TrEMBL record:
<dbReference type="Pfam" id="PF05724">
    <property type="entry name" value="TPMT"/>
</dbReference>
<keyword id="KW-0808">Transferase</keyword>
<keyword id="KW-0963">Cytoplasm</keyword>
<keyword id="KW-0949">S-adenosyl-L-methionine</keyword>
<dbReference type="GO" id="GO:0008119">
    <property type="term" value="F:thiopurine S-methyltransferase activity"/>
</dbReference>
<dbReference type="InterPro" id="IPR008854">
    <property type="entry name" value="TPMT"/>
</dbReference>
<dbReference type="InterPro" id="IPR029063">
    <property type="entry name" value="SAM-dependent_MTases_sf"/>
</dbReference>
<dbReference type="GO" id="GO:0032259">
    <property type="term" value="P:methylation"/>
</dbReference>
<protein>
    <recommendedName>
        <fullName>thiopurine S-methyltransferase</fullName>
        <ecNumber>2.1.1.67</ecNumber>
    </recommendedName>
</protein>
<dbReference type="GO" id="GO:0005737">
    <property type="term" value="C:cytoplasm"/>
</dbReference>
<keyword id="KW-0489">Methyltransferase</keyword>
<comment type="similarity">
    <text>Belongs to the class I-like SAM-binding methyltransferase superfamily. TPMT family.</text>
</comment>
Length: 238
């Protein structure tokens, strides 16, 4: 397990990408997303419309390509530039890159009109709707919460507030979190242990939380945890 201070630094994740130690990256579309993605789509007068979907700490996830091919506008965010470059190269997607401010925020955008994908290279704790060009219909959080070091420096509640601020009214989050059979404590992980009680503490004030499914997984060293999926929709009084 990583030192609790390491995982909050982009250098830690950069080293893992550089050494090909990115076990969280999958060469397939997340089954839960395939099964439930229509729940992310907004509805106008009962009709489903094109969704603007945010994927925080996206890496080079194929989920983004799949969502774009479904007609969604995909907005990713990643701190490690190498992962972004690999995404476009490995999927043969031509792109343009723009530097947005003196702090070095970059936006990589697909030049293929059939794949509406933009990925921002920046700190997830600095993202705002203005930077992303507006609010979002939905968020697909595939393990981002479990990777941010949520028990360090109040990062969990800060992260929850940021995601809430990015959504349009009635927007929602589909989230994958990790529940260890043997709680490793706040210093454990990544992925961090995020039981239902923690998810409720972080998001329950602003979101109605609906369980979707549980996917039991085995990771190296024979440690065992469940991947747990929930749909969280902004409350109407938010």
């Amino acid at each position: 397990m990583a030192d609790r201070c390491d995982i909050i630094n982009v250098e830690y994740w950069s080293k893992r990408w550089a050494s090909n130690d990115a076990s969280w990256h999958k060469s397939f579309i997340q089954p839960c997303l395939e099964q439930h993605y229509q729940k992310l789509l907004p509805k106008n007068d009962g009709e489903q419309t094109k969704a603007r979907i945010f994927v925080p700490l996206c890496g080079k996830s194929l989920d983004m390509l799949w969502l774009a091919e479904k007609g969604c506008q995909v907005v990713g965010l990643e701190g490690v530039e190498e992962a972004i470059l690999e995404f476009f190269k490995e999927n043969n997607v031509a792109y343009d890159v723009k530097t947005l401010d003196p702090d070095g925020i970059k936006c990589y955008s697909s030049l293929d009109k059939s794949k509406d994908i933009s990925i921002y290279r920046m700190d997830v704790f600095k993202v705002t709707p203005i930077i992303l060009g507006g609010t979002l219909d939905a968020i697909w959080d595939r393990g981002s919460l479990s990777a941010i070091g949520l028990y360090v420096e109040n990062r969990g509640s800060r992260y929850a507030d940021i995601l809430s601020s990015l959504l349009r009214p009635s927007g929602c989050i589909m989230i994958e979190n990790h529940v260890w059979f043997n709680d490793p404590g706040p210093n454990g992980g990544p992925p961090s242990h995020v039981p239902a009680s923690v998810l409720k503490d972080l998001f329950g004030k602003n979101f109605d939380i609906t369980p979707l499914e549980v996917d039991q997984s085995i990771i190296p060293k024979n440690d065992r945890y469940n991947r747990v999926y929930n749909l969280m929709r902004l409350k109407t009084n938010h």
